[in-house]
Design goal:
This protein has helices spanning 76-82, 111-120, 139-149, 155-168, 173-177, 186-198, 216-233, 244-250, 268-273, 278-285, 346-360, and strands at 34-45, 48-60, 65-69, 91-100, 104-105, 122-125, 204-208, 236-240, 253-258, 261-267, 336-338, 341-343. It is an alpha/beta fold and 361 residues long. The strands form two sheets. An eight-stranded mixed beta sheet has the order 6-7-8-3-9-10-12-11, sandwiched between helices. A four-stranded antiparallel beta sheet has the order 2-1-4-5, with helices on one face. The protein starts with 33 loop residues before the first strand and ends with a helix. This is ABC transporter ATP-binding protein. Keywords: ATP-binding, Nucleotide-binding, Transport.
Length: 361
């Protein structure tokens, strides 16, 4: 994959020329930022309520594409669902806030106010697109249901916008709207999910593993569509992925999660080029190689923690960390911000003064 050189650690990308079916021009003025503060999500289990997110704090700048990476069970999808206040029982948001420009604290929204926020302000593209589509209704009928539920006055205009979006993504809009989900391929269903997330002009779009189970050609098409529509509509985008290559291809900033914590966050190319947290380094070293010395690719030792095995004290990564120190077993590392990078690691913090001395020697 090729990486994007522009946008990493920079201000939001400039608007491009207008494309039929896409809203541009004034979009940037309404592009929202997101501030997650001390967010805690717990799940009820036979052992009691156990944390899936443990005091997560994260800032998503307006107009950026932010990637969330980590192994399965790290809390990526739980964080994404929390932005919609959509964590379902036996889970619940136990503390913290999710402030979104133009909406306020989403955690405080409920009932009709929350329903209207979803779709109108917040768009979500699910990991398995077929699971979010009704197999008994055509895509067109589901689109009309969506419009009616949000009191859209001009349903024919909504259909025209949906067709334009689908055609913008390389599909026959009329045929797709006339089809049931089983009549569409995986890549087509994923594009339908993107259309449904955007057709009500949402400004914050969350994509949960949008390229999972897709072939390489379709994956490249979906990533191109994500980049183009993000830029042309002036969106703020959050992409959940386990694929470092996908993150490098499309995101501006990258947050690495482990055990329900954000352990590193910063501009994508800086995080991938000079990772500061040992978990981030481990993820990068585990990427399979197709050329060069393939023995340099090494799997992370051990297994990621489950709800019941997350350490109750100290660093969540302590059991798998090659740099573990005594303090890691008892004290949770604070998130230290420096030069636009955030890292939560005792070893990284201990090494920082030595790095400074070397720079000034």
């Amino acid at each position: 994959m090729t990486t994007i050189s522009h946008g990493v650690g920079e201000s939001p990308r400039p608007e491009s020329s207008a494309v039929p079916g896409l809203l541009v021009g004034t979009a940037a003025a309404t592009t929202p930022g997101v501030r997650v503060r001390d967010l805690t999500v717990v799940y009820r289990t036979p052992l009691g309520e156990l944390p899936a997110l443990g005091g997560v704090s994260l800032t998503i700048e307006p107009g950026t594409i932010t990637g969330i990476v980590g192994e399965s069970g790290s809390g990526k999808s739980t964080l994404a669902l929390s932005l919609l206040n959509a964590v379902q029982p036996p889970g619940r948001i136990a503390g913290g806030s999710v402030e979104i420009d133009g909406l306020g604290d989403v955690v405080d929204l409920a009932g009709d106010r929350l329903r209207r926020a979803r779709g109108r302000h917040l768009g979500y593209v699910f990991q398995a697109a077929q699971n979010s589509l009704n197999p008994l209704k055509t895509i067109g009928k589901q689109l009309l249901d969506l419009g009616r539920s949000h009191d859209v006055d001009d349903l024919p205009a909504l259909v025209r916008d949906a067709k334009s979006l689908l055609e913008r993504m390389g599909l026959d809009g009329a045929r797709v709207l006339d089809s049931h989900q089983h009549e569409l391929s995986g890549g087509m269903r994923q594009r339908v999910g993107i259309m449904l997330a955007l057709v009500l002009n949402a400004r914050l779009v969350i994509l949960d593993e949008p390229t999972t189970a897709l072939d390489m050609i379709t994956q490249a098409t979906i990533l191109r569509i994500v980049r183009e529509i993000h830029q042309e509509r002036g969106l703020t985008t959050l992409m959940v992925t386990h694929d470092m290559g996908v993150a490098a291809e499309v995101t501006d900033r990258l947050a690495v999660m482990y055990g329900g914590r954000v352990v590193e966050h910063g501009p994508t190319m800086e995080v991938l080029g000079s990772p500061r947290h040992p978990y981030t380094r481990g993820l990068i070293q585990a990427i399979p190689r197709l050329s060069g010395d393939i023995t340099q690719s090494r799997a992370l030792p051990g297994r990621p923690p489950t709800l019941g095995t997350v350490p109750k004290r100290g660093c969540v990564f302590q059991e798998r960390c090659p740099l573990r120190m005594e303090v890691c077993e008892t004290v949770e590392p604070p998130s230290v911000i420096e030069n636009g990078r955030t890292v939560a690691c005792h070893a990284a913090e201990a090494a920082r003064p030595a790095e400074r001395r070397k720079e000034h020697a």
